[in-house]
């Protein structure tokens, strides 16, 4: 078991998906379908423009989101979950949400 958890191990890569506060929130906001950046910012209360930009860049870079640009005037860009992003939302994020619903009061009380 020693050496199984090194700096670039898969467990660390997986837990990094929850390390940034806004990343899971952005993924959750896109579960309903593709959205433009402005619509995302409106639907996610309290996120700054900088935080949204950073989150979108991270999620695209790790393959959870895709950025679709359209040659229109004015230019249009949509963000959508990839198959990997949907599996993250339907799997670990759903499991965490279920756990928090069950044990959230215990967390607050502690």
UniProtKB/TrEMBL annotation:
InterPro entries noted in UniProt: HTH_HxlR (IPR002577), WH-like_DNA-bd_sf (IPR036388), WH_DNA-bd_sf (IPR036390)
Domain HTH hxlR-type positions: 9-108
Keywords tagged on the record: DNA-binding, Transcription, Transcription regulation
Annotated transmembrane regions: none
Keyword Phosphoprotein: no
Highest taxon, organism lineage: Bacteria
Name the UniProt record assigns to this protein: Helix-turn-helix transcriptional regulator
Lineage: Bacteria, Bacillati, Actinomycetota, Actinomycetes, Micromonosporales
